[in-house]
Specification:
Number of domains: 1
Shape: elongated
Helix content: over 70%
Largest sheet: none
Number of strands: 0
Order of helices and strands: HHHH
Distance between the termini: 31 Å
Number of helices: 4
Strand content: under 5%
Amino acid sequence: MGDAYSWLKFIHVVAIAGWLGGFAAIAILNGVTSRQADARDVTIFVAYGQALGARLVGPASGLALLAGVAGMLVGHLSLQTWIVWGIAAVVLFIAIGVIALRPILKRLAAAAAAGASPAELRPLLRRQRFLLVINLLVLLSALWVMVVKPA
C-alpha cells in the first residue's frame, strides 16, 4: 500500500499538477481574451480567472505546501538545495502575486466594469500575462529542481 512518505509525495505531486495547470489555464484565458479585449470579454475572463484561482489554484497550492512540509517531516529530510529552492519559489510566487498581479487584476476588473476600450484594456492584459508567465516559470523551475535535484 505504500508508506506515509510515499502517499504525501504523491499528494504533493498531484497538487502541484493542479496548481500549475490552473495557473496555466488563467494565462491561456488571458491570451484568448487579449485578442478582442472588449470590456465584456475581459469581465468574463476576470470572473473565470478568479474562479479558477479560488477553486483550483489556491486549494492546490495550499495542499502542495502542506503535503510537501509533511513529507519533509515524515521523511526526515534536511533542507537540501532542491527543498530550499522550492520554498524560495513559493515565496517568490506569492510576492509576485501580491505585489504585482493583484493590483493589475483590480485595475483590469475596474476598467472592464467601466466599459474601457480595447486600447485601454490591452496594456493591462499584456502586463498581467507577462506576470503570469513569470510566475509560471518560477513554478516550473521549482518543479524542475525537485525532479532533477541538482547538487
